[in-house]
Amino acid sequence: MTDGRKKAIVMTTHPVTRHPGAAWLYLGSGLSSALGNAISNVVWPWLVLHRTGDPAAAGLVATCILLPSIIVATMGGDVIDRYGRKRISVISDIISAASVVWLIAVDTTVGATLPWFIAIGIFGAVGDVPGMAARTALVGDISERSGKSLDWLAGANQSIMGVCYLVGPALAGVLLGQLPITWILWLTAACSGIAALMTWVIRLNAHHAPAEHSSVRGTVTVWRDVVKHPMLRPILVVEIVIAMAVFPYLMVILPAHFTHTNSPTTMGFALSSYAVGMIAGSIVIAAVGERLRRNLLWLVAIGATAMGFLGVSCLTVTTIVVVGMFAAGCGNGILRPIGTVVVTENVPETIRGRAFSLFSALDSFAGPIGLMATTAALQATDIYHVAVGCSLCVTVMFLWLGIMGYRTLGASQSNLQ
What is the DSSP string of 50-107? Predict the structure, then answer.
């Protein structure tokens, strides 16, 4: 095992009790939560459109939820470190389930209107946003409790996310055609409830409880130290670049192109290939991430992502677009688990919630920034020039990130103080 990773498996000198079932409960909880979110991401816009009759209403709801989500992401890290990663993960899933039950109650009694959708959406974001950071920050505890390596856990968890991204929208479409909308909402609430229950029954090693209350460092100070850390900086920048690039492709460029060519089925293949690639990349990390040099895996992932974006920019050649989406997804499927592992290894557990909350906040903020930049560019030119420009920018950034990450990730582990 290289790159200082021996320290990542056992992070304390206290006696530990191994329980492999903790890993499966953790992954099962992630699967249930992610599947519920994937279905909800389709059902919510459909319900908003159906109840309001306004095609712009879903976008307005999403916009109104964005700012509170960023604020919650900013504050959520301190809450995670103060009250515990497991506890906040459970509470977040309960809040998510409660928000859906609230929507069902409103819709079946007074009728859901636009203000109701905004209010309930903001309430749900209070649970979802810190919950994602808490679940990710929990991976170190699960690794110690189960005996599974960080690489295996991070890769397996990312594979689950890819499966849900692939299966969830299709399942939601089938359910919308077969079941009343209220039944589907109950299903998503049940998914969040099951996720909370599975996380709650996990028993972590007892010495973690006081450690999670011991830090008094401010969130801004922790974030500043994360940005300055040589190993964490490339991980952070990659997160921003991918979010800024992927959102415009998935939500604007590809839909606009395939709508123009009247090829909805092909668009489905392209979007699905990204999810399949993400699953493949995550499986690679889970299988061999512990044995291979991390800086080499970083280079492979950076190269695959950059080549993928260059391929996707060739919108007129469908085969290259599909292959490019697969390559970009594969690269992302490797990069995200690497990021999870590197942060877990280098950030003390007492401030880990705030470290992961920085990634959640930037991920929530970078995507809309990319969308706004794409929208502005489309006022001056067409989607084909925007696609090429976006891909070239990503390639240049990834060339720099590849070099920087190769140097820093190959060095000895350097813990954030």
Answer: HHH--TTHHHHHHHHHHHHHHHHHHHHHHHHHHH-HHHHHHHHHHHHHHHHHHHHHHH
